[in-house]
Design a protein that fits this description.
single chain; 387 residues; mainly alpha; five-stranded mixed sheet
């Protein structure tokens, strides 16, 4: 069944697109998805096609966005979306018990809708109201510190046609009415935003600030918000003022400087700079090898070549062999190349190094150690385990 969107929806779509620059019209996709959800109750394939047509996109681009955000429903949803937080804080305080009670009471599970089409239930990972937990929202309006009995009371009132008042926020509306607001249009219901207010935990910081006379220096809530042109002009004036306040660069001293023999040095020659204090390290300042891959850089740090390593450079140590001498330059790179050749990249069938030859070799060596000693020695066991 193909949905034909009303002319009012198409007019609102044109209004949404007009909010954005002509070459940035695809930025209107998010509110447009809310708009089609306001008409159908979810983002249907027809809604995806509608958004693609008005924005000049393909359906895959629209579908990728619609499936990313959980606020866009991909199947018919009830008039009231009841979300129960089951994340850590609310769960500890009883959120899971609230959710389980509603599942049993309504006879539906996560993302399922009651038979009368009134309520869609879902568990939410976090509703960003830990100080009010356990929390439940109805079409994204909060019901704080709920327990199983109060949650059942809310859903029963909704199914009976009532509109229970949220703990915080405006009066409840249906999911379609909420989608209109999320699309960027005002709630036209009489007195829709007349009620509600913040909770005490939200105001706690403000009350403490007032009690201890804490405020932002120079803060004036009546200060008008400047336009972009006024803000740019003020920024330019501040930059010019800062440039003018900079001190003039000091000129080179023209005073004669005496040489080591007491004679005067040529006029205009600056005194040589004094050497900086020694840092205690003889390691030269070497530019970081930004052009090297992280793998090569790690390998060289673990085993730098004798010809290029600095003995006392922080984090490095020139390796030595059994005779106490450093290896020849290039040994580290040779070892790295040999290791890479011995460990081919993993294929689709099994991880790298998991080949039958290696397993047979380990078994043969372990068996040889057992036969030599009459019993498996600790060394053979350890060698086999390592390999």
């Amino acid at each position: 069944m193909t949905t034909t969107f009303t002319e009012e929806t198409r007019e609102r779509a044109r209004e949404i697109i007009a909010r954005y620059p002509a070459d940035r019209s695809r930025s209107a996709l998010l509110p447009l998805l809310h708009l089609v959800q306001a008409e159908e109750g979810y983002v249907s394939p027809a809604g995806v096609t509608f958004c693609a047509e008005v924005l000049g996109l393909n359906k895959a681009q629209v579908g990728a966005v619609a499936t990313f955000y959980t606020m866009y429903k991909r199947k018919p949803t009830g008039d009231f979306l009841v979300s129960v937080c089951t994340n850590t804080m609310c769960n500890v305080l009883g959120g899971q018990e609230v959710y389980d009670t509603l599942v049993e009471h309504l006879g539906v599970g996560h993302d399922e809708t009651t038979a009368d089409g009134t309520i869609t239930l879902e568990h939410a990972e976090c509703l960003a109201a830990c100080d009010y937990g356990p929390v439940m929202t109805v079409n994204y309006d909060f019901f704080d510190r709920v327990d199983p009995s109060t949650a059942v009371g809310v859903v029963d009132e909704l199914r009976a046609g009532g509109r229970p008042m949220p703990t915080r926020g405006a009066r409840l509306c249906t999911l379609k009415e909420m989608a209109v607001q999320l699309a960027g249009f005002a709630d036209e219901r009489d007195g829709a935003v007349a009620d509600g207010g913040p909770g005490e935990p939200t105001l706690r910081g403000l009350r403490l600030a007032q009690e201890h006379n804490v405020s932002v220096p120079g803060f004036d809530p009546n200060t008008p918000i400047r336009s972009k042109a006024e803000a740019d002009k003020a920024a330019a004036e501040a930059k010019a003022k800062a440039e003018a306040a900079k001190p003039a660069p000091a000129e080179a001293s023209a005073a004669p400087v005496k040489g080591g023999d007491g004679a005067s040095a040529p006029t205009g020659v600056a005194e040589p700079a004094k050497p900086e204090a020694a840092t205690g390290s003889t390691a030269p300042d070497v530019k970081a090898p930004d052009g090297k891959s992280p793998q090569v850089r790690t390998a060289e740090t673990r085993q730098p070549d004798a010809g290029t390593a600095v003995p006392d450079a922080p984090g490095t140590k020139v390796p030595v062999d059994g005779t106490g001498t450093a290896p020849e330059a290039g040994d580290a790179r040779s070892a790295e190349a040999a290791g890479t050749a011995a460990n081919p990249p993993a294929g689709d069938g099994k991880p790298a190094g998991d080949d039958a030859g290696a397993q047979e070799r380990n078994l043969t060596e372990a068996k040889a150690g057992t036969d030599a000693d009459g019993a498996e020695s600790a060394d053979a066991s350890e060698t086999g385990a390592q390999k």
